[in-house]
Amino acid sequence: MGAGDFAVIGTGEVPTGNFPERSEFEIAYEVSRMAIQDAGIDKNEIGAVLTAGHIMNNPDNDYNTEMFFGRLPEAIGAHGTKVVATTISGGASSFSIRKTAEGILESGETDTVLVVHAQRFSQFTANEQAKYFSVAGSDVEWEVPYGMTYNSLAAIVTQGYMAYKGATIEQIAAVCVACREWACLQPNAMFNNKHITVDKVVNARMVSYPLTTLMCNVLGDGGSAYVMTTAEKAKKVCANPVYVLGDASQYSHRTITRAREKDPGKMGDELGVTAKLAYERAGLGPEDMDIFEIYGSYPVISLIVMDALGIHDPRTSGELVLAGETSPGGKFPVSTNGEAMSFGHTGTGVGFSTFVEGVRQLQGKAGEAQVPGAKFLIENCGGGAFMDCHFTVMGNEVA
Amino acid sequence: MAGEKIDIETIKAMLNLTDEDLVKPLPIPTKWSQPFWDAAREHKLVLKKCSKCGFIDHPPYLYCTNCTADEHEWVEASGKGTLAAYAINQFGVPFPFWVDLPYVVGLIDLEERIRMISNIVECDQEKLSNGMDLEVVFDDVTDEVTLPKWRPVDESMRG
Prior knowledge:
The complex is a heterodimer. Chain A is α/β, with parallel strands linked by helices. Chain A has 14 helices and eleven strands. The two termini of chain B are about 15 Å apart.
């Protein structure tokens, strides 16, 4: 396998938000059809159907089991399907599922794979969601009994990042503002009609000091899909394929107490080793990137990932964001769909929406959010209690 | 930054909760962590140390994560540590913890070079600082379960 061997040729996405009447099955069927139509292929060309497993599965409406047992190819009439699989690694699912797709393509059994994510959090009560997310990012035996939550985990990392890196709360808040500015250009974003300011974010209700409500992501229902093929096929069937040029991965821990990098101010340096490897494998560098599609989930993680990306500017990540350089029209566009903070947190789907948005940008289909002439970008995802990180460089030409 | 304490009966009435909704989650020990919780009940903080390579695992696992040996001993920790970073929960926690708001969740560096998440108690929340010295205290949350927690060593930092 080499750089540019695989390409995405079409995407589909439904709006993220609170849609209790729209089942995850409906989402999956709909985004599948959209992605196939966008790719301009016949549904029977699809040889493998991959779905991302749910977090918070409902046993009375068991999406996971239906997907394991092949509901989707039957429901969408993908009669050429040979392989079905579900992949899940929390927020890193968009990466682990894409690697699965690449492996299937590499095997030669098929040259066309459909990849799907769908989630409906609104079927659960607020307390069910709060309970789940207190154990998703925290250790049930060693942390949850102390009243630890996902927000507390992010708050601890934020407090540490500010103390050891010298970042300010205004810089943290500015990440949320930049995400919102992008989301306001996105028809499918959950929060796309109300601008916010640094002042408003800093002065919102305190959730877990130093994080206010507007510094915490909000769960939403949503889903997306894409069609991936070999580069050879992509060139034949698609006018504007998006190639995977290089990627690299690292895993650190399950519980934050066992993180490899102890200093929250230096987590970006640790991730930077992996980002550099992804650039090298793509034969490109940070100076070639037109967009940085960061999956932060919390503002501090966006800054940590920015620290890792080697952006050529003497200013710190926080200073760049506060100066508007990552917002629409800025020098370094970051998270052009508003990511979890303003696009909405769809569970395992945040990485999918980040990836799909990157593809749209490189296909010139990003509408009002389009970064003019975008050719190359780097994107990332990661899951759990910031357990891992995966960087991928993509381009609409092979470097 | 301290919010107002909320009375448990007010919460129950406000949210139409049962007593069961307000039961705090407790650690469910595994075969390999049981000695930690047994010692905590005796107000001792112990850590799992590999007898072969000397590596201390926390959280503990079935065998040494450094050398995979089974042989180990439980050694008593000094009970001293420092505060690496912290959060002060003020809102949006699971219902059983509403009565404790605002409360501190800290990332603690132990002298034994391992880390724990725990509550920082008996502290003036305004005076918390990264690197401050902490010592272990034991909170008997039920007859069966004791949670090790941490408080500032410096009495002027205590609330």
